[in-house]
Design brief:
It is built from twelve helices and nine strands. The protein is α/β, with parallel strands linked by helices. It has a single domain, classed as Alpha-Beta Complex (Spore Coat Polysaccharide Biosynthesis Protein SpsA, Chain A).
């Protein structure tokens, strides 16, 4: 399939109609040519009026709705469905409840100009341990000016920075020095050239519980030679919401699966559980002789 130049935004969802509505509204207000992007919503078996919410945006942007039967947590399969139906050269993954800055798509696209295969890891305000504070700064919005005011409030509050950004800055560590950048390939906000995703055959659909499917894909993209970069100027806000509790045995099971599939020191440490990702990065950088900014 010949891909058009532009961005396919892929949003999986399950019974989160209000969060999805905010995400779609922010995507409909982008400062980007409306003919250069599409939004693909993949419904993992919702029983609410998710479909009606999606269809209500038909006259505001190019958007499509896809449904798969509820057979448990199948977000990997949902995202793959989005990838296979993407019309554009870049896929941007966002979660339901992620609010896009009006310049988000334009900034992602600018970073891909002249690049053949690339991953862009984006941060998210409010993706931290201060969700009550984040909620106090959020309000409903209807236009770009109101969204921009919300983003200004978040930029001015250091407590609401993405935890990955905080750790990297505290460690005085340059992203470019990380030898295993896939470890922070989190699909809350990340993009990749579509042909790269197709080349590695997308997400591993053996993941059928929350967690692990994103970094495992990142690992394969990195092994395939795809360039990783950090998109610090691409801004989104993670709208706080109740999360489904994750049984520890599920996390352990998938960490073990990743190690079995990709045996290495880094994935072995991941399998141990409770090892902070930054410690795995430092261990791997030491093993590979990577240079850290500031001599760390």
């Amino acid at each position: 399939m010949l891909l058009k130049k532009g961005i396919s935004v892929i949003v999986p969802t399950y019974n989160r109609r209000d969060l999805l509505d905010r995400t779609l509204l922010s995507l409909s207000l982008q400062l980007f040519n409306p003919y250069d992007y599409e939004v693909i919503v993949i419904d993992d078996g919702s029983t609410d009026d998710t479909k009606d919410i999606v269809l209500s945006y038909k006259d505001r942007m190019l958007i499509s709705y896809m449904y798969q039967e509820d057979k448990g947590f199948r977000v990997a399969q949902a995202r793959n469905l989005g990838i296979l139906n993407a019309r554009y050269s870049v896929c941007l993954f966002l979660d339901s409840g992620v609010i896009a800055h009006p310049s988000l798509l334009a900034r992602h696209w600018r970073a891909y100009l002249g690049k053949s295969e690339q991953v862009l890891i984006g941060f998210a305000y409010g993706y931290c341990d201060y969700e009550e504070l984040a909620l106090s700064l959020l309000k409903d919005f209807n236009n770009r000016s109101e969204i921009e005011n919300i983003f200004c409030s978040f930029r001015n509050n250091k407590s609401l920075r993405d935890r990955r950004s905080v750790v990297l800055d505290n460690e005085v560590m340059a992203f470019e020095s990380i030898s295993i950048p896939w470890i922070i390939f989190w699909t809350c906000h990340v993009s990749c050239t579509t042909k790269s995703l197709l080349k590695v055959k997308g997400f591993d659909e053996n993941f059928q519980s929350w967690g692990g499917e994103d970094i495992e894909l990142g690992l394969r993209l990195h092994a395939a030679g795809v360039h990783f970069d950090l998109a610090r100027d691409c801004e989104v806000i993670h709208w706080p919401h109740v999360r489904t509790a994750i049984p520890p045995e599920h996390s352990n099971q998938y960490a073990a699966y990743i190690y079995k599939k990709h045996p290495a020191n880094s994935t072995f440490m991941l399998m141990q559980g409770r090892v902070p990702w930054i410690d795995i990065v430092k261990e791997e950088n030491t093993r590979q002789g990577a240079t850290l900014v500031g001599g760390l």
